[in-house]
Amino acid sequence: MFDFGLRIRELREQHHLSQEELGLRVGRSKSVISSYENNIKLPPLDVLTDMALVFHVSLDYPVGIDKEEMLSIRALSEQQKKILRTLVAELQDTSPKYAGLSDRQIFLLDSLLKEFATP
């Protein structure tokens, strides 16, 4: 059976946060964070969402649906987001690969270098 409190405690400890520090980040007291970790209370959706953002995980992860970490691209420009989404699609492509880089991969790498090197 899934242990929500343990998942929250593990995430908090992985991020080197005390219960008090996590509480400050999500607008709750140390005792409330403790009650979440001890499965006495479940956080409301807004607090759970804030926790996911603090821990850089999908909202599914704290509730045990998904075990994959996520990376937030919220602070990136639309062009940077577009390049990264295209790169992810390219990496997920399972069609047979050629030796070396394809023209598309070279284009993506060039785009990444140009976009992220510009201040």
Give the strand tally: 0
Averaged pLDDT = 84
Task: Let me know the largest β-sheet.
Answer: none
Distance linking N and C termini:
48 Å
Q: Approximately what portion of the residues adopt beta-strand conformation?
A: under 5%
CATH superfamily of the largest domain: lambda repressor-like DNA-binding domains
CATH topology of the largest domain: 434 Repressor (Amino-terminal Domain)
Gyration radius, rounded: 19 Å
Coarse shape: elongated
* Distinct helical segment count: 6
Contiguous runs where pLDDT drops below 50 for at least 5 residues: none
Give me the strand/helix succession.
HHHHHH
Structural class: mainly alpha
Write a structural description:
It comes from Butyricicoccus porcorum. One of its GO terms (molecular function) is DNA binding. It holds the Pfam family HTH_3. This is HTH cro/C1-type domain-containing protein. InterPro entries: Cro/C1-type_HTH (IPR001387), Lambda_DNA-bd_dom_sf (IPR010982), TransReg_Diox_bact_type (IPR050807). The protein is mainly alpha-helical and about 120 residues long. The chain folds into 2 domains: about 5-65, lambda repressor-like DNA-binding domains (434 Repressor (Amino-terminal Domain), Orthogonal Bundle), CATH 1.10.260; about 80-115, no CATH class. It is built from 6 helices and no strands. It has helices at about 5-15, 20-25, 30-35, 45-55, 80-90, 105-115. α2 (about 20-25) crosses α3 and α5 (about 80-90) runs antiparallel to α6. The radius of gyration is 19 Å and the shape is elongated.
